[in-house]
Design goal:
Layout lengths: L8 E4 L2 E4 L17 E10 L2 E5 L3 E5 L2 E6 L5 E6 L2 E6 L2 E5 L1 E6 L6 E3 L2 E3 L2 E7 L2 E9 H6 L2 H5 L7 H17 L11 E2 L15 H9 L3 E5 L2 E2 L4 E2 L9 H4 L15 E2 L2 E2 L8 E7 H16 L11 E7 L5 E8 L2 E6 H7 L12 E9 L2 E10 L7 E2 H9 L4 H8 L4 E4 L2
Parallel strand pairs: 3-15, 18-27
Antiparallel strand pairs: 1-2, 3-14, 4-7, 4-11, 5-6, 5-10, 7-8, 8-9, 10-13, 11-12, 13-14, 16-17, 16-28, 19-20, 21-26, 22-23, 23-24, 25-26
Helix pairs in contact: 3-4, 3-8, 3-9
Length: 411
């Protein structure tokens, strides 16, 4: 029986506490049960408001604490190491609180957003941390469409591929943030998660159709990187990251088909960014010291910006910034963070052509023509959509982007 089928909430009177897996418990093995997962929604918040679309029970240390009705709210703040819970009946201090909806198919609302399962709140480093504890498959239902957007029936295979990759990522990274009291964060530093409000019928169907399925290589869960748009070919890990090892299943894969590229349907397949000389100097004087540890005083004047080397996928792996005292080398993993856009966003990708206009030996304008969006390693999400439109199944898509890996049932 999976954890979705067993009781994961221990009701004591009117309250509830989570029986979630401790952070140190090992990842479920093949043939095991679906685990619960702990998702960090807010970390170090100054204030969090808990409401419900039905009655909510709160518990502390396994004992009933209080109830709030549908039209009630509790505001959580921090007082020293204590959690302050303010509601109409008054303010109380707790070490931590757990909240659960007492009405079937209803949710606990965190700052107006509904979440399934249990909500826990506690204090870490002077702020309120809020964690959503729920079954892994329920978590994935709130991930798939946030990551892939709303898709048509023709693109169903892409949603299924995303569900398998997201499930693999979650299992592979269980306990990643155990020191903070949860497994994964709800944002792009792990996987985008929107809770119940971001579920769709197609996304839920994709999760159910692939229940328990993961990607493995030599019997182990793979490192399932994915990104928006590869721009023509996926990247080798060393082109994008400083500490990710190359593996047989993470290597450049062409996204080309007979008439173009599978991901050329992406709105970010091609793009151009321009900087005038002043904007470029201002940005580089901030990003180069912060990223490379070089003194800002060395960047008095930008004489030139050149791409020097490319990697196996065609991405720029070395860029040189010429200043008065010489050249500043910037390597692949740092290029997107150093060459931020005029509106202060990370550069879309490193599949780029760099062109400079100079006046009196100084860069007056820098133009970057680019393709793709994201680090480029692993599954190309827009490529997956294009492949689904072309009739490929989820397994076909995943085996294309992770060569040598295979889809297997983990539970």
């Amino acid at each position: 029986m999976t954890s979705a089928g067993r009781t994961c909430l221990v009701l004591i009177g009117l309250a509830a506490t989570a029986c979630a897996r401790p952070p140190s418990e090992p990842v479920v093995q093949p043939g095991g049960e679906q685990p619960d997962i702990r998702i960090g929604l807010d970390v170090g918040a100054s204030e969090v408001v808990i409401t419900g679309d039905g009655p909510i029970a709160a518990s502390a240390a396994g004992r009933p604490a209080f109830r709030i009705g549908r039209d009630d709210a509790v505001t959580l703040r921090v007082d020293g190491r204590a959690l302050l819970a303010r509601r109409a009946a008054g303010t109380e201090r707790f070490e931590r609180l757990s909240f659960v909806s007492l009405a079937p198919d209803h949710a606990v609302m965190v700052d107006g957003r509904p979440y399934r399962g249990v909500i826990e709140a506690f204090v870490i480093e002077g702020g309120v941390t809020v964690v959503n504890v729920l079954a892994l498959e329920a978590y994935l239902a709130g991930v798939v469409n946030v990551e892939m957007g709303r898709r048509t029936a023709r693109e169903r295979a892409a949603l299924e591929a995303q569900a398998i990759v997201a499930r693999t990522y979650a299992l592979k990274n269980m306990g990643k943030s155990a020191g903070a009291g949860f497994d994964l964060r709800a944002g792009v530093s792990d996987q985008a998660y929107g809770g119940q409000a971001r579920e769709t019928d197609d996304g839920v169907a994709a999760v159910r159709a692939t229940a328990g399925q993961v990607l493995v290589y030599d019997g182990d869960l793979i490192a399932p990187f994915y990104h928006s748009t590869c721009g023509g070919a996926t990247a080798a890990p060393e082109e994008a990251f400083q500490s990710v090892r190359s593996t047989p299943y993470l290597r450049p894969v062409s996204d080309r088909h007979r008439d173009g590229f599978y991901c050329d349907i992406s709105p970010r397949f091609q793009w151009t960014v321009e900087w005038d000389g002043e904007a470029l100097l201002r940005i580089l004087r901030r990003t180069v010291p912060g990223r490379l540890g070089i003194e800002p005083s060395l960047l008095r004047t930008i004489r030139d910006v050149q791409q020097r080397r490319t990697g196996p996928s065609g991405r720029v792996t070395e860029m040189r910034i010429r200043v008065d005292d010489g050249d500043v080398p910037v390597f692949g993993p740092d290029i997107r963070a150093v060459l931020r856009t005029p509106d202060d966003r990370m550069l879309g990708s490193t599949v780029v052509r760099i062109a400079t206009e100079r006046r009196d030996g100084v860069v007056a304008r820098l133009t970057v023509d680019g393709r793709g969006w994201g680090h480029g390693v692993g599954m190309c999400q827009w490529g997956a959509i294009g492949r689904a439109r072309a009739g490929q199944r989820a397994r076909d898509i995943l085996e294309a982007y992770f060569p040598g890996a295979r889809v297997a049932h983990w539970y």
